[in-house]
Automatic annotation (TrEMBL):
Region annotation Disordered: where it falls in the sequence: 1-36, 464-493
Annotated Inward rectifier potassium channel C-terminal domain residues: 186-356
Potassium channel inwardly rectifying transmembrane domain boundaries: 39-179
GO MF, one example: G-protein activated inward rectifier potassium channel activity
Pfam short name (any one): IRK
Protein name (database record): G protein-activated inward rectifier potassium channel 1
Membrane topology: Multi-pass membrane protein
Species name: Menura novaehollandiae
Catalyzed chemical reaction(s): K(+)(in) = K(+)(out)
Keyword Chloroplast among record annotations: no
Keyword terms: Ion channel, Ion transport, Membrane, Potassium, Potassium transport, Transmembrane, Transmembrane helix, Transport, Voltage-gated channel
Transmembrane feature ranges: 76-97, 151-174
Upper lineage: Eukaryota, Metazoa, Chordata, Craniata, Vertebrata
Amino acid sequence: MSALRRKLGDEYQVVSTSASAGGPPPPRSAPRGKRQRFVDKNGRCNVQHGNLGGETSRYLSDLFTTLVDLKWRWNLFIFILTYTVAWLFMASMWWVIAYMRGDLNKAHDDSYTPCVANVYNFPSAFLFFIETEATIGYGYRYITDKCPEGIILFLFQSILGSIVDAFLIGCMFIKMSQPKKRAETLMFSEHAAISMRDGKLTLMFRVGNLRNSHMVSAQIRCKLLKSRQTPEGEFLPLDQLELDVGFSTGADQLFLVSPLTICHVIDSKSPFYDLSQRSMQTEQFEIVVILEGIVETTGMTCQARTSYTEDEVLWGHRFFPVISLEEGFFKVDYSQFHATFEVPTPPYSVKEQEEMLLMSSPLIPPAVSNSKERNSSVECLDGLDEVAAKLPSKLQKITGRDDFPKKLLRMSSTTSEKAYSMGDLPMKLQRISSVPGNSEEKLGAKATKMLSDPMSQSVAELPPKLQKLSGGGGRMEGNLPPKLRKMNSDRFT
């Protein structure tokens, strides 16, 4: 136990589902009545078909499958009964032929040639049929050439016997080779667990294979059975919902050599999105697990099933590790296959956790306002580009660099974003950020003022950084000739 605590940590508490293991038992909810299950723990579906009416004739149309699906006691009874009736019927036919020909009265006459030698009563006729049917051939009873009806009956007996043997022996062989017993060596954990894994709330259960032979192309699926009512008022008593156990990522394809933990991540697409530890005490649902694969030794498809009700799902638990590295091999300890231990897990649903995280966040980006402000800035700069394009070529060269409006756009968008983010900060942070002396805020404010009325201000009023970008060291309009100044004022007015 000390080694276990060094490995898992002191805050974890080991909980074993077996009675022999030490430690306190897992927490149990209030006792309920007996839960009606749709699928039992051994995989048997708890469904009975009734009031079939005239549909029972469908079973006779597929007689072979009907016989295979019957229980063993009924299979053995039908097997023995069929052979007994067939043997008695055919023995009676041989006795009738001997009786009609008068062979029974002349059985000890050496000068008379009967249909079947040494058949003088019903037991002898029955023994003759068994000898011919089983191809024993003692040589004491045999058919003579003076009996054509006996030859025809012998041919009919051979054909009928072959059909009965093929049907019944084939049925018994399929019954014995069914892969249902292979499912007995596929294990499922007694309980499912819900805890955090990789930062996400996850539903987990364990699957194991007791045999050394593998399950080829093993695939696992999960169904959630839960009653619900549609918006139209229709009540669905056993609505089946799919639980994603890795279908999108391929994790549902198992390499079942050692016990595996199957995970279902609870997110917004999961049916357990609203499930919390408190709501589990009032919910009623059943998780049906279906494991399919091909038996490696026989090549036949095998299916194993089990189910977990809401009472068998442990909140805040994790499965005990069962694999250890020995000298040259990995050892699986199946005594801890069903054991779990407690781990810190929030008792809230994923939906509640997302709402709490959203409410606790102090910064909410005003996406709509920022988009409007950026659109107005872009429209203003587009208008500035159009006006600059109408200037003469000499004036366009004098006005400076081509990336001047782009730099103004970056400065204006940065300033607007800072202004909106400042409004979303708490009051203390706003006071700290409003301390005078911030040259970047002054520069952004002047750039924003210029963009609001770009053509009414001269380039000389820009800050020194922007003056350098514009390409002039002093007042740009003072360096222009009078004609160009007049043309410039006429165009802008």
